[in-house]
Design goal:
Blueprint (H helix, E strand, L loop, with lengths): L1 H11 L7 H16 L7 E2 L6 H4 L10 H11 L4 E2 L16 H13 L10 H18 L6 E5 L2 H15 L10 E5 L5 H9 L6 E4 L10 H13 L3 E8 L11 H10 L3 E6 L23 E4 L1 H4 L7 E5 L2 H8 L31 H11 L1 H22 L5 E3 L7 E6 L6 H15 L5 E5 L2 E7 L7 H25 L1
Parallel strand pairs: 4-5, 4-6, 6-7, 7-8
Antiparallel strand pairs: 1-2, 3-9, 8-9, 10-11, 11-13, 12-13
Bound molecules: pyridoxal-5'-phosphate (PLP).
Pyridoxal-5'-phosphate binds next to helix 7.
Length: 482
């Protein structure tokens, strides 16, 4: 038996390889990726990558790292969206702060367990400090709790479940419960409502003003109407920066109505939340502190690599009531003087120590460059919004409140939707920048979302040039046809 154990040990030791060369190779790979990040394409309009993985199954014998890195480069980095690139102006662009990657590296190397205070008090305190920092920014008084999640969708789900339990919504109550939002609300909330078993609740899309913001009077009217019909107004969801157009609902007016009606007030600030760091934007977010729960996405507004969202709940007891469990095998993990643990505040038990990837860049760089970058994004979007209107026959949406705007070209003849789809296809083919589209009132619109920390003035000028030159191409092609 000893002989066999030793034999197995010998083989298993391959899992503790010599580190020097593979670390060097990995850093070389990362450096070569970053060296080209301002010149490489943002969108590769080619055959989807990844086929190569199918030809290379997982097997008993290992493969040289160099070969694997080549595969990653070929199969992943050369197709689809280059999400870390400066030209990413689609959807809500991702970040990818290098310091955050180092935090991830350290979190993985040490593998500290940040789920429970007992297991790593330091790691849990670090995450709680980040929660407190965000709660202060929102303006929550003491008594809140929160959690760093994998993203905004899970953070929103956590809030919905908490709201359901806080109002003790039972099966028989659900068909009478009413949820208020706008058509602009992010679809992950609809998903969350369904996952939380609430799909039978009534959804009310409250009309919006010309800037795609909820009209408070219309909300009040709808609540009155529903109450008169014997329904139970239960939850109001406002957006602080819609994904589609960057609209911020009037948080204070909506909050007052929600509170008076006895509704749970949830704010989805996944995209827009961190603009609250800017003094000049504070008034736009007035009323955020009235919410019962709010969601922010550090992997958007703090430029972190994908994988970090956050939920804050004003009354920590509600978050605990939905998520705290005691198990026999965890009996030594809870003590009276312990701090709140992430495992008691979210569905996760074992989790990535995601606090480090957020804390390291915030501490290393300080807040000043983050604020500058956020203010820069707003200015860049305004700059684009003005410049694009210098092109004749361009139609734009309302002046951007944050860093998203949209436009479309109105051709002399033909269907504008077809025209703008063709224009976007050519922009995608070019690939140096990436934009996405949306449809509002049956109009096909091209969106520009500025949030990558690598997007600067040169990127926006490049985007304008690309739009103009491809516009000419579509116009000429149309003239040939007609
Ligand atoms: C991105 C986004 C979400 C979803 O967050 P994920 O991090 O993508 O899961 C929710 N709401 C808004 C407003 C968003 O912009």
């Amino acid at each position: 038996m000893i002989e066999r154990i030793k034999q197995l040990e010998e083989q298993a030791r391959a899992l503790e390889p010599a580190r020097e060369q593979i670390t060097k190779d990995t850093i070389t790979f990362a450096e070569s990726h970053l060296k080209d990040i301002y010149t490489t394409k943002t969108y590769f309009d080619e055959d989807p990558g990844g086929q190569g993985f199918l030809d290379s199954p997982i097997q008993d014998t290992g493969v040289e790292l160099e070969h694997l890195l080549q595969t990653v480069h070929r199969e992943i980095d050369q197709s689809g969206i280059n999400a870390g690139a400066h030209g990413h102006l689609g959807y809500i662009p991702g970040g990818g702060l290098y310091a955050s990657a180092l935090g991830d590296y350290l979190a993985a190397v040490t593998n500290n367990y940040a789920g429970v205070f007992f297991a790593s008090p330091g790691a849990v305190r670090l995450e709680n400090q980040l929660i407190s920092w965000m709660a202060d920014m929102v303006g929550y008084p003491d008594g809140y709790a929160g959690n760093l999640s994998s993203g905004g969708s899970i953070a929103n789900l956590t809030a919905i479940v908490t709201a359901r339990d806080a109002h003790d919504l039972r099966c028989e109550d659900i068909p009478k419960a009413v949820i208020y939002c706008t058509h602009q609300m992010h679809h992950c909330l609809l998903k969350a409502i369904r996952i939380a078993g609430l799909k039978e609740a009534h959804m009310r899309e409250i009309p919006q003003d010309g800037q795609h913001r909820m009209i408070p009077d219309a909300l009040q009217e709808q609540i009155n109407h529903d109450r008169a019909d014997g329904l139970k107004p239960w939850m109001v969801i406002a957006s602080a920066g819609t994904t589609d157009v960057g609209a911020v609902d009037p948080l204070k007016e909506v909050g007052k109505i929600a509170k008076t009606a006895g509704c749970w007030y949830h704010i989805d600030a996944a995209y827009g939340g961190f603009f609250m760091l800017l003094d000049e934007m504070k008034s736009l977010f007035e009323g955020a502190a009235m919410s019962d729960s709010i969601v922010l996405d550090p992997h958007k507004g703090l430029f972190l690599p994908f994988g970090t969202g956050a939920v804050l709940v004003k009354n920590k007891q509600h978050l605990l009531d939905s998520h705290f469990y005691m198990a026999n095998y965890l009996q030594d993990t809870h003590s009276a003087d312990a701090e709140l643990s992430p495992a008691d505040l979210s569905p996760e038990l074992t989790k990535h120590f995601r606090g480090l990837r957020m804390w390291l860049p915030l501490k290393l760089h300080g807040l000043a460059p983050f604020k500058a970058a956020l203010a820069e994004k707003i200015e860049l979007c305004r700059y684009f919004y003005h410049k694009i209107q210098e092109v004749p026959n361009m139609e734009v949406g309302p002046k951007p409140e944050l860093s998203v705007c949209y436009f479309r070209y109105l051709p002399e003849h033909g269907d504008p939707n077809d025209f703008n789809q063709k224009l976007l296809q050519l922009i995608h083919k070019d690939g140096r920048v990436f934009m996405s589209s949306t449809t509002l009132d049956d109009k096909f619109l091209i969106r520009v979302a500025v949030l990558s920390f690598r997007t600067h003035l040169a990127t926006i000028d490049l985007a304008l040039d690309i739009i103009k030159s491809n516009l000419e191409k579509v116009i000429q092609a149309d003239e040939v046809i007609s």
